[in-house]
Write a structure and sequence with these properties.
With 209 residues, the chain is mainly α. It has a domain of 137 residues: Ferritin, CATH 1.20.1260.10. It has seven helices and no strands. The chain is globular, with a radius of gyration of 17 Å. The protein binds fe (ii) ion (2 copies). One fe (ii) ion (FE2) binds next to helix 2, helix 3 and helix 6.
């Protein structure tokens, strides 16, 4: 399977301003704790798809490698926490993923298609926001900025993998229609969510700005 493409194009219905990342500067401890949780969830999602796409021998190696890479990200994030004296703890999850999944189709195969698109979208949004954090944090916390820059490069590969898997599940017109539904929903969710120390928090657009 060839994995290529521009990850940002997978969530282009909403563009996060740099101001969102700048506003995260005072909340780095909580943001990093959430990052550890997100990496663990990303590993679990990859393992779930590994089983749900069990008959897709072409995807097994990529999904297994993806799950392992997300666990390595989890361990790396734990090391960043330890180096900064931050104790890993549970956190209330962001409502982002749950609100995104509200539009998932109720029947197969569209359901699986939607869930793959959602994973592509989440990875693409993570890529976009880690890039912004790398920029915004550089003058204040260069080690954390470098950490986000490294993760950002990995997310650039993850989003197209899910998108390419989704593209194989249905005729192209169906795939495109479901992609549009998920992308629009994701933009709507981000516009409605409040700002919070979470990677997928909101930054509501002010009309006329
Ligand atoms: Fe990751
Ligand atoms: Fe990822």
């Amino acid at each position: 399977m060839v994995v290529a493409g521009n990850p940002t194009a997978l969530c282009s219905a909403y563009v996060t301003p740099l101001a969102w990342a700048e506003a995260q500067r005072p909340h780095l401890d909580e943001l990093l704790i959430e990052q550890a949780h997100l990496e663990k969830k990303a590993a679990a999602a990859a393992v779930q798809f590994l089983f749900r796409l069990g008959d897709r021998t072409d995807a097994q190696k990529e999904l297994s490698a993806l799950a392992r890479e997300e666990l390595l990200h989890f361990e790396r994030t734990l090391r960043v926490l330890a180096s900064r004296g931050i104790v890993f703890r549970t956190l209330p999850p962001s409502p982002y993923a749950g609100q995104l999944k509200a539009v998932v189709a109720g029947t197969m195969p569209e359901r699986l298609l939607d869930e793959l698109w959602i994973s592509a979208c989440i990875e693409a949004r993570s890529h976009e926001r880690m890039g912004l954090l790398a920029t915004a944090l550089q003058p204040f916390a260069p080690e954390v900025a470098a950490f986000y820059a490294d993760l950002c490069a990995a997310e650039a590969r993850h989003a197209p993998l899910y998108a390419e898997l989704a593209a194989t599940l249905a005729p192209s017109a169906v795939v495109a229609a479901r992609r549009q539904v998920i992308e629009r929903r994701e933009a709507e969710v981000l516009r409605q969510l409040p700002f919070a120390p979470r990677l997928h928090s909101g930054w509501p657009e002010v009309p006329g700005e």
